[in-house]
Amino acid sequence: MTKTLLLYGDSNTHGTMPMHELGAMGRFAHRHRWTSLLAAELDGWEVIPEGHPGRTTLHDDPIEGAHRNGLTVLPSILESHRPIDVVLLMLGTNDLKERFSVNAGDIALSLERLVRVIRASGCGPMGGAPAVLLIAPPPIRETGPLAKIFAGGAAKSRHLGQEIGAVAARNGLPFIDLTDEIDVSPVDGIHYEAEAAPIIAGLVAAAIRAHF
């Protein structure tokens, strides 16, 4: 029986390429995205990429739009794809934008709220709760065209792995920390270069096999 894995993330789940200028719309070809490589690795799983550029954990973005609030749209997405066996949560990078004024601990607590929503959704098999896999994104850099938007975010991002790991531990969730696994692109300090894709796919595939 085929199982369903929902990948709930932001531009780095969408496959957005590093930006040389604000507003760039480049996206890696389907075959080069980590989500596609993951799907190819996981026999018996339907892998659903749900990556929205600019998505936050639970903040309405006053500049880029309230529709980027990950908490607001999550129930609809869960219901759209049910039954879902596992939800992979990889968010938090956009919360580092200066406009949101939150620290790494706040971001981790925001992810914990999303976990509660998923567990209470009834969108798992037989109306139960989907399982959750938490991923901490790698630290960002303040460089390139996005540097001003993420001013002050680099220092905060270095604590994300530890804080999100603590959320995973107290909720009994499997956890992947990308801090020492991949680097953000030097082009914009936020997005990943193509060589990160097989690394992420391999780590997630191993976690899925080990835990689910």
Give structural notes.
There is one protein chain. The mean pLDDT is 98. Helices cover 34% and strands 13% of the residues. 44% of the residues are buried. It is globular, with a radius of gyration of 16 Å. It has 212 residues and is an alpha/beta fold. Helix 4 links the parallel strand 3 and strand 4 (131-136). It has a single domain (3-17, 24-211), classed as Rossmann fold (3-Layer(aba) Sandwich), CATH 3.40.50.1110. The chain has 7 helices and 5 strands; from the N terminus they run βααβαβαβααβα. A 5-stranded parallel beta sheet has the order 2-1-3-4-5, with helices on both faces.
Q: In a nutshell, what does this entry contain?
A:
The protein has a single domain, classed as SGNH hydrolase (Rossmann fold, 3-Layer(aba) Sandwich). 34% of the residues lie in helices and 13% in strands.
